[in-house]
Structures are given as structure tokens and as C-alpha cells.
Design a protein that fits this description.
Length: 373
């Protein structure tokens, strides 16, 4: 979020001594450039490859009022504002040189469910794992992200493709009921289909260009179903084109209702190479199918095209885990085994996979480029 300095607003801000309101409370949680904990707070990102961009201050507000103080103070001083919820965007755009970083990690930390209207409310730093645990406890579901530590603030702005999106659509487009936002002038608003509609419209997809700080989110839920999971892994050496073509066709043929398919490639002999990339040429291709249905029979039927592969792949089969009932904690374990955990690895992101018009041949080529470059 970039807050441009407008002379008229600057004047108004100076006339109002907002910074005098709660200095003792909020100063406890502000780290200045050069202070002892500054760099460990600055580098709290999923990607260990954090650019050398230094905000002047890192704020960790606990309340919406403290966010107002931070935003208005930055505006008064002519600083730009960056916001971090879970820190998963690989380029770390929340860091703004000489500006302030508002880290929402401690902000409004409460998840609440209203059984009258089936709405769940939560903080922007709430993770998918936290929501899955809470919602399982009340027998409800909301399509959070596929990775346990992704936070909802960045997810609804710059992600939004949740579990079973083939059935439920983009989470950010159709599941969010309202958001609380601190605007660049310090005003706190609620944006929804009926209030501040234009700002609500801008939330999904504004990403790093969003012009306010989201401080609280309300979302609709549906009754929880049962979770099932299966995995098949092939050694794709010499067969990557054929395997990807088959896998993409099987994905296209799978029912959209409650079926989520992830295709991952990995080095089979990771660790024996040197430097960032393995020297080894053996590539494993793994297909994880997560199914959200009411019974094992339904789950088996829904995913059968991914368990029936052509006979010529039999020799390449490395492992098969047939469809079985699963829990969210099992699914999170699988996800973190495919994409290793936060903060340890330097990562590079490329994608054409978000382009629904991409052909299977283009996807296949892109996968090979990622694997071999
Ligand atoms: C391992 C992994 C798995 C992923 N899985 C999925 C997935 O299944 N589906 C999907 O759609 N995406 C997925 N993503 C992408 C992810 O949704 C986006 O990177 C998202 O922006 C992450 O949100 P965050 O809050 O964790 O990240 P952050 O880096 O904290 O946020 C990203 C940006 O959003 C803005 N922002 C964050 N919080 C706020 C706030 N409270 N107010 C205003 N602006 C804010 C800031 O500009 C910030 O730079 C994944 C990413 C990774 C690394």
C-alpha cells in the first residue's frame, strides 16, 4: 500500500494531534531501523531470499486503533506504508524503503463464528491451518488457501484461489461478506456489497496495490463434509511429456465438485547434487488428489480417473496411496512435504499456470523449464 502525501490532508492531520493518543501502548511494538530485533522482524517471510529493503519502522499493532495511529503517523511524516499478514508473497513487497511496515501478526487475533448467520470473522494474519482447526470444531467450511501458513489478509487480496475452487470459485470473489479497512487518511470503514461497494469491489485482486490496511474479515461458511486423500508418484524420467499430458487430461475429466488436484515435480535424489540445484536427472511427478465428499465410495468414484493410468506407466510407478479418509492436519502435512516450510529456502517464482487459456503443451513446456532451469 502506498500512501501519497497530499498537502491538504497533511495539513488536516497536523491540526489533529493523533500521535498523542496512545504513545506508550503502541511504541512497545515498534522496532526502529538499527534496533536489536529489527532485522529478525524485517525478514519474517516465507521466502528466505529477502531483498535488502529497509523500512524505517516495523509496527506490530494489536488493535485497529493502533493501525490508525501508524497510518496517520506515516502520512504525517511523508512515509509510504507496506503491510504484511503472513509474508508469503515471494518478492516481499510489504517492505518499503524508508517507509513503515505494518505487520498484522498481533492484530485483532480472534476467530468467531456466528451460528445465526453462519458467518466466521477473523484477523488478516489468521492462517489456513488456524481456520481449518477452528471451523472443523464448529462443523463448518470456508475455502482457505492450500498451504497451512498462508494468511487471509494477503490471500484475499493477492491470491484467493482456495480449496476446491473448481466447485466453489475464487474465495476472494464470492465468500467474503465484509472487511474492516483503515484508509490512508486514518478513517476506519466497513466495506461490503452494501457499504463502500466500490472499495469492496477492489479487494479481490488489488494485491500489493491495495490502498488501505485490512484489519478484520467476515466470510460465509457452509457445512463441513468429509475429507479424503490419495497420492500417486511416478519416476518421470524419459516420460515427462506423456505423464503430464495424461495427468492434465485426467484433471480435465475429473468432476469439479469437491475434487482438488495438485501435480508436483521434485528431484528424486535431492541432496546428492551441489549448489541450489541437484545434478540428478531423475524427476518424480506426484499427483495428490484431495476430495471433499460425504463417503469413501463417493470419493473413490470422484477421483477414479486419476487412479486409472495407462499400462505403459506401470514401470514408472514409485508409490500409490489409495483414497482414504483424511483430516486437515494430514492434508497440511502432505502440502508442507511438497513445498517445504517457511523461512528456510530461497525461492524463485514463475507461472503461466494461472492462465486458464494455456494449453496442456504450454503447461508441459513450462513445467520442464522450471525443472531443468
Ligand atoms: C507455499 C505457498 C502456497 C500458496 N498457496 C496458495 C493457494 O492455495 N491459493 C492462492 O490463491 N494463493 C496461494 N499462495 C499465494 C498467496 O495467497 C499470496 O502470496 C498471498 O498474498 C499471501 O498472503 P500473506 O498474507 O501470507 O502474504 P503477505 O506477503 O503478507 O501479503 C501479500 C501482500 O498483500 C498485501 N497485504 C497483506 N495483508 C494485508 C492487509 N492486512 N491489508 C492490506 N494489504 C495487505 C500487502 O501488499 C502484501 O505485500 C501461496 C503462496 C505460497 C508461498
Amino acid at each position: 500500500m502506498l500512501v501519497p502525501l497530499e498537502p491538504a490532508l497533511l495539513q488536516a492531520t497536523r491540526a489533529t494531534p493523533i500521535l498523542e493518543m496512545d504513545t506508550t501502548d503502541h511504541l512497545r511494538d515498534v522496532a526502529h531501523l538499527g534496533s536489536a530485533n529489527y532485522d529478525s522482524l524485517r525478514t519474517q517471510f516465507f521466502n528466505a531470499k529477502v531483498p535488502l529493503v529497509n523500512p524505517a519502522e516495523i509496527w506490530r499493532p494489536r488493535t485497529t486503533a493502533e493501525v490508525v495511529t501508524a497510518v496517520v503517523g506515516a502520512k504525517t511524516r511523508g512515509q509510504n506504508v507496506g503491510v504484511r499478514s503472513g509474508g508469503h508473497t515471494l518478492t516481499c513487497p510489504a517492505l518499503v524503503e524508508g517507509g513503515i511496515l505494518i505487520d498484522t501478526v498481533n492484530l485483532n487475533r480472534e476467530i468467531a463464528y456466528n451460528a445465526d448467520d453462519y458467518i466466521v470473522s477473523f484477523a488478516p494474519s489468521t492462517t489456513s491451518r488456524e481456520l481449518s482447526e477452528f471451523l472443523t470444531g464448529v462443523g463448518r467450511f470456508f475455502p482457505f488457501s492450500h498451504y497451512p501458513t498462508v494468511a487471509m489478509g494477503g490471500f484475499i487480496l493477492a491470491g484467493g484461489q482456495g480449496w476446491f475452487a473448481r466447485e466453489f470459485g475464487y474465495t476472494s470473489e464470492s465468500w467474503i461478506e465484509q472487511v474492516e479497512i483503515v484508509m490512508p487518511d486514518g478513517q476506519t470503514i466497513i466495506a461490503s456489497q452494501t457499504e463502500h461497494k466500490d472499495i469492496f469491489w477492489a479487494v479481490p485482486g488489488s494485491g500489493h496495490g491495495f490502498f488501505g490496511v485490512i484489519t478484520k474479515i467476515w466470510a460465509r461458511t457452509i457445512p463441513a463434509r468429509k475429507l479424503y486423500h490419495s497420492t500417486v508418484t511416478f519416476d518421470s524420467t524419459g516420460k515427462i511429456d506423456d505423464l503430464i499430458e495424461w495427468a492434465m487430461n485426467a484433471c480435465d475429466a475429473a468432476p469439479t465438485e469437491g475434487v482438488d488436484i495438485t501435480i508436483t515435480t521434485s528431484f528424486a535424489d535431492k541432496g546428492s547434487g551441489s549448489g541450489d540445484d541437484s545434478d540428478d536427472s531423475r524427476i518424480y511427478l506426484t499427483i495428490d488428489t484431495t476430495i471433499y465428499r460425504e463417503s469413501l465410495e463417493e470419493a473413490q468414484t470422484a477421483s477414479e480417473m486419476l487412479s486409472r493410468f495407462p499400462i505403459e506407466f506401470n514401470d514408472s510407478l514409485v508409490a500409490v496411496n489409495p483414497v482414504k479418509e483424511a483430516s486437515w492436519s494430514y492434508v497440511w502435512e502432505v502440502q508442507t512435504s511438497r513445498i517445504p516450510a517457511a523461512g528456510k529456502y530461497r525461492r524463485q517464482g514463475d507461472s503461466l499456470l494461472t492462465n486458464p487459456q494455456a494449453t496442456n503443451e504450454q503447461v508441459s513446456l513450462q513445467c520442464k523449464l522450471i525443472i531443468f532451469s
